[in-house]
């Protein structure tokens, strides 16, 4: 479950199930950066000048941050003091073919997918901290970059566009849990309902794992949850009201206990500002479970103000598992192999199969491959 | 009642629901193509299986789009019908055509021509309709190409000057019919443009380079219909209730607040007109009205479901002795209602039923989603445990056709669901509702429709 939020009744459309997350008290002192809002509907302006707030920029959000007005994408979710003129850390973008898109300056959108995900993962893994001789010079100096992970745009997922279009946003809604064919695809939470209404359509421009793309294409429809009311328990109007409340609480509990499968294995605080803390979390990298990476902003009481997750595919989980083991042992090959219950050639081959062969020196890789061939 | 009769009853009610609500346009959940495909199937199904009843639906308040389809389908398949029934069909079609707005009828005539439907009965129907027009010279000016096409196709004999005007207008030096003469002069003389009907004047204004402001203001303006007056000048008088509600909702909320007294007054007056003799006869009434996001309709039917709900609010106010409205999320002045939020129908139904009214009217598209299906549960338990004698009569009016189900979406099997396009028709449609819940027989349905047909033809 997510602290400070309550699951509302789910709405389904085709294979998509959207569970709204409701907040009884919206958080007013952490708001989407004003530059990302449409100038015509600035709900932020409603705050008086004396009240201060902290602004946040979601990871991979594209806006005209730079002085010359060219687009740039925020690099990692960031907390910003809106009174300071400084710009968030951003990657400049140059669009060659899609120049026309820039004309629509008020539309919020995300970075192109591969870049966004790569940045996301790059934030987690920096490469070997110690220059062990097995790793190439490039791996030590530049980390895993360039690293490509594939993801699918929300727009290419069957039925997601219609599901988001017909979804009826609750008045107090501050987030959504997106299930595709009843697999949890993403969680998105913002501090304030106005922010959510502004960002709801961007879910379509967001990125989703390969598995979910397949699920959404293969499963035609998910059923609504039917929650019967026990007629035997009703003899007055108040009883019926009590039954409705019971059913709502039951659903909320079922969602939090059974359907909500995001588990933070390790969480690392990145930035503190005022009473808010931005942290990134990694899953336990257990291939038997759902594994979600994400970013979260919490306040001093642990209430989740902002949350965004991405579900890793099985291959990505395996890669993440290897990398997390390597990171735990300081990228020492022998120690890692021992931790994984294998030997050095075994680990090297696993790394190679997982797509990390280019990080190892070619002679080491060749020796291990030859050893494996001899063993067969 | 045996199964066959029951199926027939349901089929006919289903068709009427579809024919009242669907206009073949995009709705919030489904696209225009799906709507048309689904509707075309339904028309064919009922035409083949229940031809008599299919023709009889013309006597009901089916919408103009569907009335057009029914007329076309009947004329297309005319030879398949024995003679005495042909007469009745012909009478029904003629009566319906007289009822329809002329632009709709001309569209039907154009389709007849395009499809080459030209049997003797069709020609007779066209001839009678044209002969029955109150001012054929006016039609000749306003619908010139259409009337010419219809006259050519059905060999219609027209008054001399009209015929000349349609097919050889340059020949006479002047016409004796005033409107034809004005139209002739408008080709050469700017002053004549202002005396023509607005749509025709617009064409000539473009030719003479008269801008729209001048066209609207000079010489007391052009001749506008009531709807054109509403659209161009915002004059809310003499407009039907639902149309007025659509107009009110098209205004931005600050403007609605500014014109509150004027708009509320006009809506109340329209509601009183629609209620007629039934005003104040419904006892205590609670309306549960849907203002969820899906009530915003689509780009072509903007806020239509919400407008029906708003119109219903004023109509129920006129019909009831005591009246209370429960919106799903909105509170305060009904005129400022805005389609937003989810659809917690179960909870709101309970809020309404708690007041123990004589009648409860639900206006909703039936997409009950917070939580899904709870409205059905609340209604079931209410009937079973809290109101077994049926003291409160509940009816569900649905303004949206669901093309997947070939019907409007229902809330619960025990509650009658009726399709509605204009709130002012609701009182007559509610009568038909009992045939869909299995409490009335097919013979009764047939008798009911026969009564309607008789009243319609008289």
TrEMBL record, chain A:
Query: Which InterPro entries does UniProt cross-reference here?
Result: ARPP-2 (IPR054346)
Q: Which domain of life is it from?
A: Bacteria
ARG and Rhodanese-Phosphatase-superfamily-associated domain sequence ranges: 2-267
Instruction: One Pfam family, please name it.
Output: ARPP-2
The molecule here is called: ARG and Rhodanese-Phosphatase-superfamily-associated domain-containing protein
Q: Which organism is it from?
A: Dactylosporangium siamense
From TrEMBL, chain B:
Full protein name: TROVE domain-containing protein
């Amino acid at each position: 479950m997510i602290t400070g939020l309550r699951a509302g009744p789910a709405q389904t459309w085709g294979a998509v199930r959207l569970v709204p997350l409701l907040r009884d008290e919206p958080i007013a002192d952490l708001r989407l950066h004003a530059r990302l809002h449409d100038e015509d509907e600035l709900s932020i302006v409603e705050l008086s000048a004396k009240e201060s707030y902290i602004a946040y920029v979601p990871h991979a959000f594209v806006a005209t941050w730079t002085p010359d007005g060219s687009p740039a994408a925020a690099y990692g979710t960031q907390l910003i003091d809106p009174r300071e003129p400084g710009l968030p850390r951003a990657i400049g973008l140059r669009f060659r073919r899609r120049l026309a898109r820039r004309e629509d300056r008020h539309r919020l959108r995300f970075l192109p997918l591969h870049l966004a995900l790569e940045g996301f993962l790059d934030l987690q893994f920096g490469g070997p901290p110690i220059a062990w001789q097995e790793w190439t010079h490039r791996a030590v100096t530049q980390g895993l970059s360039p690293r490509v992970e594939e993801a699918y745009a929300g727009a290419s997922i069957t039925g997601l566009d219609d599901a988001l279009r017909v979804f009826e946003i609750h008045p107090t809604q501050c987030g959504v849990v997106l299930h595709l064919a009843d697999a949890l695809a993403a969680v998105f939470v913002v501090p304030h309902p106005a922010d959510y209404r502004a960002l709801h359509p961007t879910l379509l421009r967001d990125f989703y794992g390969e598995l979910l793309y397949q699920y959404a294409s293969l499963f035609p429809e998910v059923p609504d949850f039917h929650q019967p009311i026990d007629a035997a328990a009703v003899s007055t109007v108040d009883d019926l009201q009590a039954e409705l409340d019971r059913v709502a609480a039951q659903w909320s509990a079922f969602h939090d206990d059974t359907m909500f499968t995001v588990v933070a294995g390790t969480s690392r605080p990145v930035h503190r500002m005022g009473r808010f803390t931005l942290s990134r979390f990694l899953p336990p990298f257990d291939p038997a479970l759902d594994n979600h990476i994400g970013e979260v902003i919490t306040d001093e009481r642990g209430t989740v103000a902002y949350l965004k997750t991405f579900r890793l595919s099985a291959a990505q989980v395996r890669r993440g598992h290897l990398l997390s083991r390597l990171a735990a042992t300081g990228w020492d090959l022998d120690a890692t192999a021992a931790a994984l219950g294998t030997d050095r050639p075994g680990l090297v081959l696993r790394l190679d199969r997982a797509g990390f062969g280019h990080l190892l020196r070619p002679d080491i890789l060749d020796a291990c491959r030859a050893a494996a061939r001899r063993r067969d | 009642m045996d199964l066959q009769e029951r199926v027939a009853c349901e089929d006919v009610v289903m068709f009427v629901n579809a024919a009242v609500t669907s206009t073949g346009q995009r709705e919030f959940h489904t696209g225009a193509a799906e709507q048309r495909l689904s509707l075309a199937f339904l028309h064919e199904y009922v035409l083949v299986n229940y031809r008599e009843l299919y023709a009889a639906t013309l006597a009901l308040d089916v919408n103009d789009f569907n009335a057009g389809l029914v007329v076309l389908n009947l004329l297309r398949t005319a030879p398949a019908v024995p003679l005495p029934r042909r007469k009745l069909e012909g009478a029904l079609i003629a009566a319906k055509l007289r009822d329809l707005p002329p632009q709709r009828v001309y569209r039907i005539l154009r389709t007849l021509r395009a499809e080459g439907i030209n049997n003797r009965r069709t020609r007779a129907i066209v001839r009678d309709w044209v002969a029955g027009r109150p001012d054929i010279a006016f039609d000749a000016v306003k619908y010139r190409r259409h009337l010419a096409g219809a006259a050519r196709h059905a060999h219609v004999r027209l008054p001399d000057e009209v015929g000349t005007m349609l097919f050889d207008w340059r020949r006479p030096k002047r016409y004796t019919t005033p409107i034809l003469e004005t139209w002739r002069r408008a080709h050469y003389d700017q002053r004549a443009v202002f005396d023509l009907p607005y749509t025709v004047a617009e064409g000539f204004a473009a030719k003479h380079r008269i801008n729209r402001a001048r066209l609207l203001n000079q010489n007391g303006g052009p001749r506008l219909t009531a709807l054109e007056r509403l659209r161009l000048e915002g004059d809310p008088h003499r407009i039907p209730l639902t149309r007025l509600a659509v107009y009110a909702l098209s205004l931005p909320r600050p403007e609605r607040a500014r014109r509150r007294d004027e708009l509320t007054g006009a809506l109340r007056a329209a509601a009183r007109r629609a209620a007629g003799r039934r005003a104040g006869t419904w006892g205590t009434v609670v309306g549960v009205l849907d203002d969820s996001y899906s009530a915003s309709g689509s780009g072509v039917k903007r806020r239509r479901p919400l407008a029906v709900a708003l119109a219903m609010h004023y109509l129920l106010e006129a019909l009831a002795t005591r009246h209370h409205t429960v919106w799903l999320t909105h509170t305060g002045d009904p005129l400022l209602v805005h389609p937003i939020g989810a659809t917690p129908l179960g909870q709101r139904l309970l809020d309404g039923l708690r007041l123990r009214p004589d009648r409860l009217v639900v206006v909703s598209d039936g997409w009950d989603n917070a939580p899904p299906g709870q409205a059905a549960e609340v209604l079931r338990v209410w009937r079973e445990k809290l109101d077994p004698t049926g003291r409160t009569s509940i009816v569900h009016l649905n303004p949206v056709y669901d093309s997947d189900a070939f019907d409007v979406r229902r809330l619960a099997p025990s509650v009658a669901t009726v399709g509605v396009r204009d709130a002012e028709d609701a009182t007559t449609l509610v009568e038909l509702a009992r045939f869909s819940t299995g409490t009335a027989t097919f013979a009764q349905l047939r008798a009911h429709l026969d009564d309607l047909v008789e009243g319609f033809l008289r």
